[in-house]
Write a structure and sequence with these properties.
Blueprint lengths: L7 H18 L10 H11 L1 H22 L4 E10 L2 E8 L5 E6 L8 E13 L1 H68 L5 H36 L21 H10 L2 H22 L4 E12 L14 E9 L7 H67 L5 H36 L3
Length: 447
């Protein structure tokens, strides 16, 4: 059997493919710790719903400018050349009996050769244009409010995931400390069994607790990785990007309720969106009324419309000139379509008023619920801290009693479980308070 070795070019190509495959399997690494503000900015750049809301807001702003521009006169340049077959068998005669040229074969056309080069200014004045501007203004305001609603929803999601990753890291550290404590207790029970100071059942119980703590640590590690991956989906193009979160400063004090309520009422996108929807309904009502009223149209035309493309004709006739017109169209009968459109717009306007009052009531309810949640979570922080301190002291004393032969293995296991539960509750309580504060800041527009 003959074995052939690859040439230098093939070897280089295989090496490059191997290096590329290794690089592609390695997740990128974010070296700088990510703060909450940076996480929000990264999510805004990557989240498709937010991008769609931004695009809609920008598009409606342009539509608003177009609606205002529609109220202004339009200017256009009209240039045209018309050629019509001449009817040579029939000539037009002058008053003196001579011929002045051939007539076009189509009676609707003015001449065999016709040149048009004109500037036109047109303006239409009517209620429909004003209603169109109001509708565009309301639509732009609604899109802007909807953008803020989407942004705040995204901020709320990022905050929950951000502090969820923090809580996962803290619980992972708690699980690691529990494993270390279980390992230490196994060592203590084995030594006491060797010295005939404890029964073998204590060693078995310690091993059972150790195995459970190891399983808890595996679950905590999985939960922490899952939370980090969920946040990474919002922050990076590659959700497997390795990153660290910056340490958060201690949470601020709970703001005064009166100031929170005032800020929320003054800057609430749901109410602005409902108000804009009401304004859109009112503008649509105005548009419907426009179908019952006349429009006034003006036209001014300046240029030439002559058989020659020249300022003056062959006989010295001046071709350059202007014309102006004013038109008023009165609607007479449309089988009551316009009246029905007015009623339809009025019905929708009534529904928009109901939606506005509902948004106002929802704001008051949400504000009360979130503030009460933050207040309750704030009051429990000190209690949770004290519980952790007491649980640690209880575990220390229980271990001493067990080593001195005054306690049982069940008391030690119970003290270990109490400490793990207290530390997990402390992490959850801090996340609960931070989330409540973030929701308050979101409702007031500060975040």
């Amino acid at each position: 059997m003959r074995v052939t070795t690859p040439g230098p070019g093939i070897a280089v190509l295989l090496l490059a493919i191997n290096l590329f495959s290794q690089a592609s399997t390695q997740a990128p690494i974010q070296t700088k710790p990510v703060t909450l503000e940076e996480a929000i900015h990264l999510a805004e750049a990557n989240e498709p719903t937010f991008a769609a809301a931004v695009a809609e807001s920008r598009a409606t702003a342009l539509e608003r400018r177009d609606a205002k521009a529609a109220l202004l006169p339009s200017i256009s340049a009209h240039n045209q050349y018309l050629y019509t077959e001449s009817n040579r068998a029939k000539a037009s005669t002058t008053g003196t009996g001579g011929t002045s040229g051939s007539l076009p074969i189509f009676i609707a056309n003015n001449s065999v050769h016709e040149y048009l080069s004109q500037g036109l200014i047109n303006e239409t004045i009517g209620l429909a244009g004003v209603a169109g501007v109001r509708l565009a203004d309301a639509n732009a305001a609604r899109a802007k409010a909807e953008l803020e609603i989407v942004r705040r929803g995204l901020v709320s999601t990022v905050v929950q995931l951000f502090y969820g990753v923090h809580a996962g890291s803290e619980k992972l550290a708690v699980a690691q400390r529990a494993v270390d404590e279980a390992n230490r207790f196994v060592d203590i029970t084995e030594k006491r069994e060797s010295g005939r100071e404890a029964a073998h059942s204590d060693v078995i119980k310690a091993h059972l607790v150790q195995q459970q703590r190891q399983r808890d640590f595996a679950d905590a590690s999985l939960a922490s990785e899952k939370a980090s991956l969920e946040l990474g989906v919002l922050l990076y193009a590659d959700p497997a990007t390795k990153y660290d979160l910056a340490d958060e400063p201690p949470p601020p004090m709970l703001p005064d309720r009166h100031s929170v309520e005032a800020a929320a009422r003054a800057n609430n996108p749901e109410i602005r969106s409902a108000l804009a929807s009401l304004q859109m309904s009112q503008a649509q009502t105005l548009t419907s009324w426009a179908g019952l009223l006349p429009d006034l149209a003006f036209n001014y035309t300046y240029g030439i419309d002559a058989p020659e493309f020249a300022r003056n004709g062959p006989d010295g006739t001046r071709n350059l000139g202007y014309s102006a017109s004013a038109t008023v169209d009165f609607p007479i009968w449309d089988w009551l379509t316009s009246e029905r459109k007015v009623k339809e717009a009025h019905i929708r306007a009534q529904a928009s008023k109901v939606a506005l009052t509902s948004a106002q009531r929802r704001l008051l309810a949400d504000l009360t619920e979130v503030y009460n949640e933050a207040e309750a979570a704030n009051k429990q922080l000190a209690s949770l801290d004290q519980s952790v301190a007491d649980a640690r002291e209880s575990l220390r004393l229980t271990n001493l009693r067990y080593v001195n032969g005054e306690g049982t293995v069940l008391e030690v296991v119970d003290a270990q479980s109490t400490l793990v539960t207290s530390e997990d509750a402390q992490a959850d309580g801090m996340v609960r308070y931070r989330l409540a504060l973030a929701q308050l800041e979101t409702l007031t527009g500060r975040l």
